[in-house]
Predict the structure.
Amino acid sequence: MRVLLVGHDFDFSEAGGISRYSNELFNGLKKRVELGTIATGGIPRPLRVLMPIVVRGYDIVEAVYPDVAKIIKGNAKMVTMWHDLRLITKYAPSTQAKLHPKLVERYNVANRIIRYWTLSNYANSEAIIANSTKTMNEVVSYVKNVGVYDPKKLYRTIPL
């Protein structure tokens, strides 16, 4: 079986946050499957909004964040990991505008596209994973509010 992890960053040298999760996931999976990674973290969001990731030759793809990229999964099964709903709904616009003030006018468009990615990746996923019950409840509430909730999906909470 071949598994592809798609994330913002797979810098395993850091001890906390997504790097810690990525490291644990990577080390656990590499013993059992053939594993690949794609990191999109080096490209500012407004410049990567139209860059889709096409999955070829993998059986499973995991989006380590729902907004990491527009993933075209082909025949692969897809899993989406939600760490914090606020990354999509609250923090992303203001944080990115502070980091890249010259591109601030593009953030409204970029954030609409990123929200579209998030919902599209949710729709194309067979399973949704959250790092806490609180996050899972927020995700379910969010997708219900926007009218795309699918009760047939597999929903699991897996603490970091």
About this structure: The chain has a mean pLDDT of 79. The chain has five helices and eight strands. Strands lie at 2-7, 34-39, 53-54, 60-63, 71-72, 77-82, 127-130, 154-157. The CA atoms of residues 52 and 70 lie 5 Å apart.
